[in-house]
Specification:
Shape: globular
CATH topology of the largest domain: Rossmann fold
CATH class of the largest domain: Alpha Beta
Strand order of the largest sheet: 2-1-3-4-5
Number of helices: 11
Number of domains: 2
Length: 233
């Protein structure tokens, strides 16, 4: 069973989404929050450990009744999930924003997918199908018009965590457990995608999978190693 938290201020859209998703016997909406305040209340309740996937709108109000909604609120919730709550399970952005800066911040914040919700009512099933694919397949799903933002060298928070775990000597099976991937094979598939981000095109072409892993870890250690403090005169 995949337990889902929906953070979405459009109650009608959230209900429609829940209705379609819960047609699947292994998908269950555990809670819906429409504001930052309601989301934080749920986090404080201690029930976040029940959640396998968060569907997060970016443009949200801070409090119920607020007229103003901002993508800064949704991005702040994403950062809170990854940094403060240490939530490394699936987070999918479902938003109307196609701004480059929103996509870049969502990616660097560690989202697992970025889908646009402004589809016509008769196309919502396509959106739902993409959500199901992302939740079950552990793959990055983004709309075509946003791929230039996501397919780049920078690592997301979740990808950085994967490299950190590998650097500690964990196996693919152990990484899968730590990051809530379905199995070792899925973790390895994601891992080699991360390796390719760390390596040049020539290095990708010239090295076997095992060599890629070794070189990527070497590159990761060089990037993540703390810089020595300059001597004080």
């Amino acid at each position: 069973m995949t337990n889902i938290l929906v953070i979405e201020d459009d109650a009608e859209f959230a209900s429609t989404l829940a209705e379609f998703l819960e047609e699947e016997p292994d998908l269950k909406i555990i809670h819906k929050a429409g504001t930052e305040e309601e989301a934080q209340e749920f986090f404080r309740s201690g029930r976040l450990n029940e959640i396998d996937c968060v569907l997060l709108d970016l443009k949200l109000p801070k409090h119920k009744g607020d007229r103003d909604a901002s993508t800064r609120v949704g991005l702040g919730i994403l950062e809170h999930l990854r940094v403060q709550e240490k939530f490394f399970r699936t987070v999918l952005i479902v938003t109307s924003s196609q701004l480059q800066e929103d996509g870049e911040r969502a990616m660097s914040g560690g989202c697992d997918g970025y889908l646009c919700k402004h589809a016509a009512p008769d196309e919502i099933m396509n959106l739902v199908d993409e959500l199901k694919l992302a939740m079950r397949g552990d793959i990055l799903v983004v709309p075509r018009q946003m791929r230039y933002v996501f397919l780049r060298e920078g690592l997301s928070a979740k990808e950085a965590k994967l490299m950190e775990l590998l650097d500690k000597g964990l196996t693919w099976a152990q990484v899968a457990v730590e990051l809530s991937y379905r199995n070792a094979s899925v973790a390895a598939t994601v891992g080699y995608r991360v390796f390719d981000k760390l390596l040049s095109i020539q290095e990708q072409e010239e090295n076997s999978d095992e060599s890629k892993r070794a070189k990527a870890l070497e590159r990761w250690r060089a990037r993540s190693k703390p810089r020595p403090r300059e001597a004080v005169e």
